[in-house]
Design brief:
alpha/beta, Rossmann fold, binds ligand CA2
């Protein structure tokens, strides 16, 4: 069974409570519940973490080493600023999928660049809460392919 760490960055705990026009009406709790349902259907084990603090996110990424098989992360605003989160992902070396609710490429120029993209398997953005579900599927598929490659 694949073990996947879900990580939500700053302010995502506010989902559903403010700015529904950009980020939708679903709360983080309901996104996590849907992901949990999806994971049990797909037979994968999920751990979920949210923090507003960069250091706590780095600690969580470091703690995946030896305990998880992949990471699904929405780094929030740290996407556009955090060399520390990028370095932590590179350091643990786990397949990582970056997700965003909004299409960051359609928004302000400062959101177009992601420090995370270069160390991620791929990026999914613009599908609202569904970005997480799509990202989970993409990560599992990637892990399955890697697993099969190891065996042959
Ligand atoms: O689209 C995304 O998922 C983002 O990662 C969300 C971040 C933003 O800084 C990124 O550029 C794109 C912001 C999350 C803020 O979430 C809120 C939720 C409700 C109310 C206010 C903020």
């Amino acid at each position: 069974m694949f073990r996947i760490q879900i990580i939500h960055g700053p302010n995502l705990n506010m989902l559903g409570l403010r700015e529904p026009g950009i980020y939708g009406r679903q709360t983080l709790e309901s996104i996590n519940a849907s992901l949990g349902q999806e994971a049990s259907n797909l037979g994968v084990a999920l751990s979920v973490f949210q923090s507003n603090s960069e250091g706590a996110l780095v600690d969580c990424i470091q703690a995946t080493f030896g305990h998880q098989d992949g990471i699904l992360i929405n780094p929030g605003a740290y996407t556009h600023t955090s060399v520390a989160i990028r370095d932590a992902i590179a350091a643990v070396g786990l397949p990582t999928v970056e997700v965003h609710l909004s299409n960051i490429h359609q928004r302000e120029t400062f959101r177009h660049h992601s420090y995370i993209a270069a160390v991620a398997v791929g990026q999914i953005c613009g599908f609202g809460a569904d970005s997480y579900r799509l990202g989970l599927h993409a990560l599992i598929k990637h892990l399955e392919i890697k697993h099969l490659e190891k065996k042959t």
